[in-house]
Here is the input.
Amino acid sequence: AAGQVAARWRRSQQNNLLFIKSHHEDVALRLQHLLHSCLDVFDEKLHAAPKNSTDGRDAFLGLLYPTEEYKIFGYVTNTKVKFMVAVDDSASKDADIKAYFRQIHDAYCAAVNNPFHQLGTPIKSKAFDQTAAAMLGK
Here is the structure.
């Protein structure tokens, strides 16, 4: 198992917040601050990766920032939408986190394919929210 997912965050190309969800409401602001502070590390890893290192679709950037309580991982789509997740389990494996990102990316694609959704705006999809909520305990 990938451990307990503490929070997930999506950012558009312009770093607009698209979605955040946490099962620890009492530490949600702290998690948001941690995830926001990872944006620089995210961009460094993204720019440091060789252009031919991915197959052109998606890129798992791996561990962005470890803290005493959480490990923060990053993922970017080919359209430069950034996904981050904070996991509160030190035994998390990259393969589990990659599978998690693929699953949440699929849910994201379904949400933004709604003809009434405007790209770059916060996600307001009950189905996406339910998928994210179900994955919090994984």
